[in-house]
Amino acid sequence: MNRPVQDHEILSAVFAKMDVVGMAVAAGVLCALLLFLATATLLLQSVPEGSLIGPHLGALGDYLPGYEVTWAGALFGGFYGFLIGAAGGFTAAVYWNLTHYVALGFMLISSAELAD
Amino acid sequence: MENYQNMPATDKNAHAVNLRLLNAAIRFNALILGFTAGTLAAFIVYFATQISMGKWGDNSGGYLSLLAIFFPGYSVTSSGAWVGAFWAFIYAGTFSALSYRLYGRVLGTRIADILLSTAPAENPVLKPSVLRLHGVSLGAAIGTMSALCLFFSTTWLVVRGTAGESVHAALFANYIPGYSVSILGALWGAVVLFLMVFLACLLLASVYNKIVESRYQ
Questions:
Q1: pLDDT bucket at A15, cuts 50 / 70 / 90
Q2: Residue A11 near residue A65, CB atoms below 8 Å
Q3: What is d(CA B167, CA B181) in angstroms, rounded to the nearest whole number?
Q4: Average of pLDDT values for B32-44?
Q5: Contacts of B51 (CB under 8 A, 6+ apart)
Q6: Is pLDDT above 50 for B5?
Q7: Which candidate in A1, A13, B45, B99 could, as Cys together with B88 as Cys, close a disulfide (CB 3.0–4.6 Å)?
Q8: Which residues of A touch B96 (CB under 8 A)?
Q9: What part of B 154-213 touches A (C-beta under 8 Å)?
């Protein structure tokens, strides 16, 4: 981009809203991949015979039914990761947009009081 | 449409824009993001503590209580939940606000490129455009902040003299080859973590932008 940025573009960027669906899906995909890879990484590491693999990560099974540090569990983890990431992304995007509206409301009220 | 993921990293328009407005814009959004992430983190720590107590009773807090290393006064109790929420707000709020400041700095005058449309809007405030993410700037900002967090939290464990007992922190070595609870390990871990977070941010921005473009164009 070789042109100077205009003031209205800066203002638009400040108050641009986050796409809720986009953020939910993107965060879901990222979390799914992270939890799958976190599980897979432990499974691919060599451990002494008879040792428990990933007891700390496996504790997630207390919250995520069916999850364990196995290849099947990694798939479960990917599924849960998507749900958790999507919920987090959705919440974050809604909250981000909402906070902007609230901040804008305060600014409008303040400017109206100043005008009076 | 310009491929904003591959935009040059240098900022050539620094003298051609209203820098005062740009800096104010970055400060405003940093504040908003800090508040947003801080309150979300506070809710998460508060409810995680309450759920842990509800589920495990007197045996609760096996892992959660480790937060007390970084959250002075925190414990897995009703009053500790409020202390945890306070510290979570401070840490997450600061992390996010500084991340946005860095994001804004790296993005600089290319801020207009994150908009879906740069055509003059009738009212950019009341009828906002849709935001896109700039993966490289996002990765640089969050990657840097994550790396600093890992470095300083590991250093704190070393300084307080509990590095040898920090078996949970040492588990990072499963994911960050070469990491250890030492200053050198923290430095190496910070570099690797930066790369990992950078790639994760590129993926996040790429998926998000693809969905936004397909939904609005």
A1: confident
A2: no
A3: 9
A4: 92
A5: none
A6: no
A7: B45
A8: none
A9: 168, 171, 174-175, 200, 203-205, 207-209, 211-212
Q: Tell the burial category of A67 from Cβ atoms under 10 Å away from its Cβ (0-12, 13-18, 19+).
A: buried
- The kind and range of the H/E element at B13 are none
Give the span between the Cα atoms of B143 and B147, in whole angstroms: 6
Count CA atoms within 13 Å of residue A98 on its CB side: 10
Q: What pLDDT digit, counting tens, does each position of A57-107 carry?
A: 888 887 788 898 899 999 999 999 999 999 999 999 999 899 888 888 887
**Cβ within 8 Å, pair A2-B203:** no
Structure tokens at A9: 């573009």
Distance CA B53, CA B99 (A): 33
Is B12's CB within 8 Å of A19's CB?
Answer: no
**Residue from B207, B213, B215, B217 to probe the interface with A (highest A Cβ count within 10 Å):** B207
Q: Quick one: chain B helix, strand, coil %, rounded to 5? A: 70, 0, 25
Residues of A in contact with B204 (CB under 8 A): 26-27, 30
Q: How many CB pairs lie under 8 A apart between chains A and B?
A: 137
| Confidence (pLDDT) at B6 | 45
B111 to A13: CB separation less than 8 angstroms, yes or no: yes
Residue B196: closest CA among B210, B212, B175: B175
Q: Report the residue from A3, A10, A95 with minimal CB separation from B22.
A: A10
Q: pTM of whole model > 0.80?
A: yes
d(CA B92, CA B43): 11
Contact B27, B41 (CB under 8 A): no
Across the interface, of B129, B171, B207, the residue whose CB is closest to A12 is B129
